[in-house]
């Protein structure tokens, strides 16, 4: 048997990593400024993270959600305090797509409706309703296209008001900072307008924080830059630092019932250990503050490079926009400079999504490598 060939791969085989340093099977060292799509939030093989998972593995790796698991309660309590979202309940799952799937399902249960408003260049996952709400026809199969989704331009007040008042919608879903789409953001005025109109029209507001959450933007959640309160918040990526885990924060105004949502693997003992380790490191090492401060430092360094036409994003969720397509530049960064970076739907954008505990010295190394590659 061979692998189903769906990924274009660089000729690099990582076998070990620590912090932002990654070594391949030939002993070559690389610097990871992409974190596997913003997943590595506290650095590769962080000692506290490794110990937490090893200790849990020695005790118990898994049991289903048919028994009590106090670790889930510990995750919910810690997450509520650190994020400032104590008025929400936590449902744990396994990925960002599953988080958004359950968020949309809850919105539909709550309203009794099925149509969704999403935004151009948004990305919410690759499963049923989540991929239908993703603005990429090439990954939407006919079975997904049965979902009714209206796509609108970000920051178009008139189009949004016309849409939400002209039809029956269950949900509006948006990213505070678009990841795959290219680091575009709703303005504060627009996000607040969305929240206001959702409330007026009894539509559920879903904040997709799968990539922008967990401190990456310089606040715990990206929507917190805009002074809004979503009804549902989806989380994943940085939540487990590489362990597959996701979650849905559901406002306490929603009423749960047995069987409403469910999962076999979600919130298992190892996932909880990983999640607790991440939250503890975020708190103990002040990594959200570090993300905000280093994001500002990154932008001052970027301003020194004339080839960079625009810097997009917040904190350590940053895109560098050039006046040329960056595929060759990204290849040079990994092959010649031994640095991992990311691409986007915007082919002129280079994405920078490192662990939140990087240093100014690490950013200096990134820009040294970028200048050489340019």
TrEMBL record:
Q: Which CDD domains did the record assign? A: OAT_like
The molecular function terms of the Gene Ontology recorded here are:
identical protein binding; pyridoxal phosphate binding; transaminase activity
**The protein's name in its UniProt record:** Acetylornithine aminotransferase
Family note: Belongs to the class-III pyridoxal-phosphate-dependent aminotransferase family.
**Is the keyword Secreted assigned to this protein?**
no
| Lineage top rank: taxon | Bacteria
Q: What is the lineage of its organism?
A: Bacteria, Pseudomonadati, Bacteroidota, Flavobacteriia, Flavobacteriales
Q: Which Pfam families match?
A: Aminotran_3
For this protein, the record's SUPFAM superfamilies field holds: PLP-dependent transferases
- Which cofactor does this sequence's record say it needs? pyridoxal 5'-phosphate
Keyword annotations: Aminotransferase, Pyridoxal phosphate, Transferase
